[in-house]
Structures are given as structure tokens and as C-alpha cells.
Amino acid sequence: MKRFFIGALAFIGALSILFVVGVVGLLMLAASSKPGVPSNLVLELDLQQPLPEYTLDTSLAGAFGEEPTSLRDVVEGLEKGATDPRVKSLVVRIGQPGSSAQVQELRDAVKAFRASGKRAVAYADGFGEAGNGTGAYYLASAFDAVYIQPSGDVGLTGLVMETPFARDAFAKLGVKPEFGKRAEFKNAVNTFTDESYGPHQREATEAFGGGLFQQVVKGVAEGRKLTEDEVRALIDRAPFMGQAAVDAKLVDGLRYRDEIHDELKKQAGDGAEFLYVDKYLERAGRPHQTGTTIALIYGVGEVLRGKSQSNPLSGGQVMGGDTVAAAFRKAVEDPSVKAILFRVDSPGGSYSASDTIRREVQRAREAGKPVIVSMGTYAASGGYFVAMAGDKIVAQPGTLTGSIGVYNGKFVTSELWAKLGVNFDTIAFGKNATFSSSDQGFTPEQRAQLESELDTIYLDFTSRAAQARNMPLEKLQAVAKGRVWTGEDALERGLVDALGGYPKALELAREAAKLEKDAPVRIVVFPRPRPTGQVLSELLGKHEADNSDDEATGHAAMSSQVLEQVRAVYRVGAKLGLTGQGAEGRMLYAPLPEVRW
């Protein structure tokens, strides 16, 4: 009987393996027999949710090639479609398009598509539906025509920036935040230490929000052929229902989806078909696949030591210092690579991990490989630290930029635990063994040590930034102070070199590689995507790396990912001071203000 059960289990295990192999084989077979591109088509895009900047191949979905459509996919799909005679027009349903910088990247792509003489139409059930639809409408205003259905509205009501302050809540809980920061505008810890906006945080937040608001007003005015004063007046009167939105010249008509699609299909001609932008790109092929090689390296998410990874709870990503640094080394070692495009989208994080990446950016330049940085939603604090050593930096007008500063400290939770009937007793060996302990506050000597550490890091950050940006230290420190800027303001202050997105960065990469303006280039992502079989084997725990660089650009085993989900919950407690970790790994960090638009 025992042998029977063992044999049955072995048989079931063998069937499971065969099933996985069979699924992979079928998927590979399906991939090899993709349908072609219709001879007459309308590109279609659904923006009900923000597009991810980049997706790591660290899950079974990634292994099976089911990554979600990325921002770059859409930008390159529209670029490809603009010159493809089979593509007649574009229709986009807009819901939640993402941050200001993402919206501006999409607006640029749509305007470039229209510049080829092709029509672009945006529609929505409604922009906001009694909520705030400003960001969605800002994107829509870049199209030839904008429609809502008769029951829809246009919630072009402006933007609101909200910051929670939990000082009193922490006091009631018995949690004491003990932090230091450099300098006065470094507001990452204010949520824990203040009860409302202080003068410096209010000044920076109002300036940042005011800059974004002006960009929206200007964009809507240009797109809808209105004056900026008219747009401001409309914002103060919004929201607008149905016909009122038409009368205000905010939309071109009240139409349902089927009416819009029927019209576009008729305009495209006989046999016209609709095709999603990502499917079109998959079948037609990406642009920039032949010519001089330019490496594309992503730095997305909070900067931490170790490998890049996905956060299973937040859906976000971690920019692993080891992974990104190894990608730079691989690109430098590749003789075909003539320039590197470094796409940064990060609020910052670990000082040491940020410095690891910055060092490799510097080494790439010293090796004769120019580095052009393209900033996404934000490149703040550690995100700016990794970017500042590039030859040129490109940001969108709405990119959250700068926050050149540092903070550190811990939450002291002994009173909280005492309220719960838990008391910690400590035996320490070493005068400063309790430096990071959440059970005890800083001694005067430890506080002095913390302040000295902050001074050292701030001077290092500002000195390196001044050298990288070719500025006197005093001038750089005047715009540092931990303050965030819009990309537009950062350009005026010398923190970035140009405004734009992927196309502008690519233009500068060609220039840095000493190529003609329209010279063909081949964009290759580093680290290079791995074969499906290798990804699967690594997910199952098989070690494939030959050296530390291969290890850094590989994938975590499945068992490690499950463990990481548990650790992610633990980190939530760490941020609230409920564990001993405190703010570990986040000394160069700038949380994105919550903007409702």
C-alpha cells in the first residue's frame, strides 16, 4: 500500500511537469504563428488604468510573455503607426491615465501621431463622473476630437494635493518619531512629526502644484483653441454635464462608443479593422530595431540594495542596486553599444544602493559610453542621485525632480508596547548597540552622531550634484535643501538639460554617439530578456548564474517570492515603527505628493 501511494504521488508529479511543459510548448507554438497586420486598420487603446513604466520578468505571467502594455510600448506603437500606411487613425478610451509626467509623455506621442496627418480621437463615458477628471481631460485635449456619451460629464475641476499628518495619532498610540533631516524642505518625515503643512513644506507644495496646474491650463488652451483665461474660468465653473460641455467647447459632441467606432471605420475605408496598439506593435515590430546599438536600462521604483524585484502587495517595483549596476557593466562591455539611455522613475531610497548605481553611470561615461537620462513620473532624492551623473538629463515638465537632501531616524515604540502589556528588556554590548533600536530613544551622543551622519551625506550629495551639473556648490545648495521641483522649474535651475520624453532622450543619445539626427538605431534593453525556459527554471529555484553579474541580473526563485510577500507585510510595520527596521534603506527618499486630478 505504501508503495502504491508513493507511485501515485510520483505519477501525479510527472503529470504536473508534463502539463507545465505542454503549456509552455503550446504558448511557444502560438507565438510562432502570430496573425499579421490588417491592410487597413484603426489603432485602439484603452487607458482605464495607468500604464506601467516597466515590468520585471519575475513571475509566471512574465515567463509566459503576458506582461502588461508599458508606456514605452504605446509611445513606440504610435511612432510606428504614424509612418505605416496601413494605419488610418487612432481611437483611445481614457479613464485613469496616470501621473502628470505619464500624461505628458502620452500627449507628446499623440501629437506626433497627428503631425503625420492621421486622425486621433479620444472618448470617455465621462471625465470624472462627479469626481475629478482633470488629468484624464488634460490628456484628451491633445486629440483632434473629444467625445463623451450623453450621460457623461467633464470634471475639469483643477487639482488637489493632499498630505496626511499623523503626529497626534502616533502620540495617542505611544509611538515617538525621532528623525533628523537635511535640509528644511526635506519633508518626507513631516507626515510623522507635524500636524499640518509648515512654511517650507507649504511653499514647496504650492509651487509644485501651481506649476502642474499652469501646465494643464496651457495644454488644454492649446488643444481646444481657447485662451488660458477662458480655461481657468471653465475650471472654476466645472463640472459640466453633457450639452453644457459641448457649449463650453470642451468636447466635440455627445456620442456612444459604437457611434465613434462606426464613424472611424467608415472614414478608414472598406474592410477596416480595429487593433490594439500593443498587438499592432507585436505584429508589426518595434521601431528602432536596426542600426547603431543604444542600450536602454530601466531604474524603476524605490532604490534598495540587492536585486530588482516586484512588490507583490503594492504592485510597484524595487530598483535593485546590484541589478542596475550589473546592467550598466554589461552594456559597457558590449562593443556594439555606443550610448546608454537610462530611464529613471524613482522616489529614491537607500543611499548606498543609489551610490552603487551612480558609480556605474560614472564608469560608463569614463569608458566612452555616453549616458542620457530620461526621467519619468519622478526622479527624486536617491532617484536624482542615480541620474545626476549622466551626460544629459531629460524630464517631462511635470516630472517631480530634485529633493536633494537626506533624512534618517527611527520610531520609538516602547510606550506602544507597554500599553499592550509588552515590555522589552535589553542587554547591550557596545555603547551604541541600541542606536537603531525601536525600544529606546537616541542618547544625546547618538543624536549628535545622527546629525553628523546627515551632514556628511548631505555634503556628499550636494557636492557630487554640483560637480555633475557643473555648478558652484553654493548655487547647487541654493536649489537643493531637500526641495522638489517640477521638471520645468528644474530646467530653469540647471538640474536638468531638456524637457521631453523617450523621443527627446533618443535624440540626445544619437547626438552623444555622434550620429546623424535621423540615423537608424537599435534599442536593446539591458539586462537582456532571458529565454522562457531559463526564466521558468529560475522561478523554480534552479541556479543558472555563472558569475556575480549574471546573478544580479537574474530572477528570484519562486520560494523567495513567496517569502518576500510575507516580508512586504513586515515592511509596512517597519514604516510605522512597529518593528526594529524603522526607516532603514530610505535615507534618500521623497514620497510623491498625492495629487487628485
UniProtKB/TrEMBL annotation:
Transmembrane intervals: 7-31
Catalytic residues of the enzyme: K186, S381
UniProt xrefs under CDD domains: S49_SppA_67K_type, S49_Sppa_N_C
Main location: membrane
Compartments, as annotated in UniProt: Membrane
Sequence ranges assigned to domain Peptidase S49 in this UniProt record: 113-268, 364-515
Keyword entries, A-Z: Hydrolase, Membrane, Protease, Serine protease, Transmembrane, Transmembrane helix
GO BP terms: signal peptide processing
InterPro entries the record matches: ClpP/crotonase-like_dom_sf, Pept_S49_pIV, Pept_S49_SppA, Peptidase_S49, S49_SppA_67K_type_N, S49_SppA_C
Taxonomic superkingdom: Bacteria
Listed SUPFAM superfamilies: ClpP/crotonase (SSF52096)
UniProt GO cellular component terms: membrane
GO terms for MF: serine-type peptidase activity
UniProt similarity note: Belongs to the peptidase S49 family.
Protein known as: Signal peptide peptidase SppA
Species name: Corallococcus exiguus
